[in-house]
Amino acid sequence: MLTRLRGFAEDTRGNVTLETVIWLPLLLTVLASMVSLHDAFRYKSLNTKAAYTISDALSRETEPVDDAYLDGMVDVLEFLTISAGPYSVRVTLVSFDADTLNYDGSVRSAGAGYQVDWSQVRGDFIALTDAELAEMTANLPEMLDNERVILVETRTEYIPPFEIPILNEADLFYTYGFTRPRFAPKIVWADSTGT
Questions:
Q1: Could you give the CA distance from residue 76 to residue 82 in angstroms, rounded to a whole number?
Q2: What are phi and psi of 75, to 5 degrees?
Q3: Vertex 176 angle, CA 170 and 180, to 5°
Q4: Which helix (H) or strand (E) holds 179?
Q5: Rounded CA gap, 169 and 62, in Å?
Q6: Which of 120, 160, 165, 191 is the most exposed place for a label (fewest CB within 10 A)?
Q7: Helix, strand, or coil here: 91?
Q8: DSSP of 109-161, one letter per residue?
Q9: Separation of alpha carbons 193 and 195, rounded Å
Q10: Who's near 194: CB < 8 A, 6+ residues apart?
Q11: Are strands 148-156 and 114-122 parallel, antiparallel or unpaired?
């Protein structure tokens, strides 16, 4: 019996096949994960570039922006990200009022100073309010009194080539960017109510 066991332990025939059966599923899983992660980072980069492209285009406007213009920006987002959709865009003109600050420069309340002039949406977003903006102030730049920035937020859906649970989170491909108006002190919405 010991001779047979020793012979079985020393027999090396079939080792490559056995190792292939053990390691191939792991190697294929790692390869699929790498392809999915690379594609996800590429797609995230496209989303970021699209948000800044829309923000830059808006910052150059000297005429009032209307619904047709914003619909065109959604088409730009669709073209640049090449995704299956849905596409969501929120454009908000944010102003800063230094009168809401104390004399020593400290803020009277959290988010004080930043105000929404107007906010327009397409897709799943809802119009940004002053209360929601107050929660985002850590992500906004320091501004001068009566200065304005254009805040552009985009959200698109991403379907990875291989299912990886972390890549299917809802806000994974949410991007925001802000730009100061270039040729005018502020960007005007065509509808004066600006809701």
A1: 10
A2: -60, -40
A3: 170
A4: strand 174-179
A5: 38
A6: 165
A7: strand
A8: STTTTEEEEEEEEETT-----HHHHHHTGGGSPP--TT-EEEEEEEEE----S
A9: 6
A10: 93, 117, 118, 119, 120
A11: unpaired
In three-state form (DSSP H/G/I as H, E/B as E, the rest C), the secondary structure along 37-86 is HHHHHHHHHHHHHHHHHHHHHHHCCCCCECHHHHHHHHHHHHHHHCCCCC
Q: For residues 127 and 191, is the Cβ–Cβ distance under 8 A? A: no
Spatial CA neighbour of 134 closest among 94, 185, 175: 94
Does residue 43 contact residue 74 with C-beta atoms inside 8 Å?
no
Q: Give the span between the Cα atoms of 112 and 9, in whole angstroms.
A: 76
Q: What's the token pair of residue 176?
A: 């925001």
Q: What is the mean pLDDT of each run of 10 residues along the chain (195 residues)?
A: 82 77 90 88 90 93 92 91 84 85 52 83 91 87 88 87 70 82 87 54
Q: At residue 90, what are phi and psi to the nearest 5 degrees?
A: -130, 125
* C-alpha span between 176 and 65 (Å, rounded): 19
Distance from C-alpha of 150 to C-alpha of 187, rounded to nearest angstrom: 8
Return the pLDDT at 194.
Answer: 45
> By C-alpha distance, which of 49, 48, 37 is closest to 167?
37
Specify the pLDDT at position 10. 79
So what's the pLDDT on residue 167? 65
